[in-house]
Amino acid sequence: EPEVTQTPSHQVTQMGQEVILRCVPISNHLYFYWYRQILGQKVEFLVSFYNNEISEKSEIFDDQFSVERPDGSNFTLKIRSTKLEDSAMYFCASRILLAKNIQYFGAGTRLSVL
Amino acid sequence: DQQVKQNSPSLSVQEGRISILNCDYTNSMFDYFLWYKKYPAEGPTFLISISSIKDKNEDGRFTVFLNKSAKHLSLHIVPSQPGDSAVYFCATFLQGNTPLVFGKGTRLSVIA
Hints:
The complex is a heterodimer of chains A (114) and B (112).
Chain A: E1 5-7, E2 10-13, E3 19-24, E4 31-37, E5 43-50, E6 53-57, E7 65-68, E8 75-79, E9 88-95, E10 104-105, E11 109-113
Parallel strand pairs in A: 2-11
Antiparallel strand pairs in A: 1-3, 3-8, 4-5, 4-9, 5-6, 7-8, 9-10, 9-11
Chain B: E1 4-5, E2 10-14, E3 19-25, E4 32-38, E5 45-51, E6 56-59, E7 62-67, E8 72-77, E9 86-93, E10 101-102, E11 106-111
Parallel strand pairs in B: 2-11
Antiparallel strand pairs in B: 1-3, 3-8, 4-5, 4-9, 6-7, 7-8, 9-10, 9-11
């Protein structure tokens, strides 16, 4: 069964460093999303991406964040200068164009900022 | 800003019995609701959904009930199995392609 793949599963970084989280969405899906879950809190939306551009973003997604689809398969989230409070699970999700808004999630990347 | 509330952080149920997970929402504009299940070290997995034009949707052991006047939905699992032990998230969205809004989740433990 097709699935959303995320790498790495765990990323440890020093505060102020740049990190890139990678995702390979399901191949025929056209909408892509990043969510995050800080420990003990709810899953929160960061950004959605369609047709090679951001379609919506939350207040969390400030200038430190960016997304890119550098080729036909990868979808990346970059955090330019990480802060302690960026430590969280980051989930990538994708969905097919015409179906009801059922999003399929990857296993997540645990980001630890020290 | 709790648009979707799951007021029970945890629930423990005997194997074979019914599990009932509850979810309340505040915005009457939400018109489609989803339940996701999450195991440790995995991402949320879609389980079942319901449109606001229905009050019930059933898929095998899983049934979701929607009470629009009360802004309340529930997920029933019967009979519960140990493999159902996971965190269950209620989620919804406004319309079209808008992002999912999640509740905080309920951890279900099914005891053999």
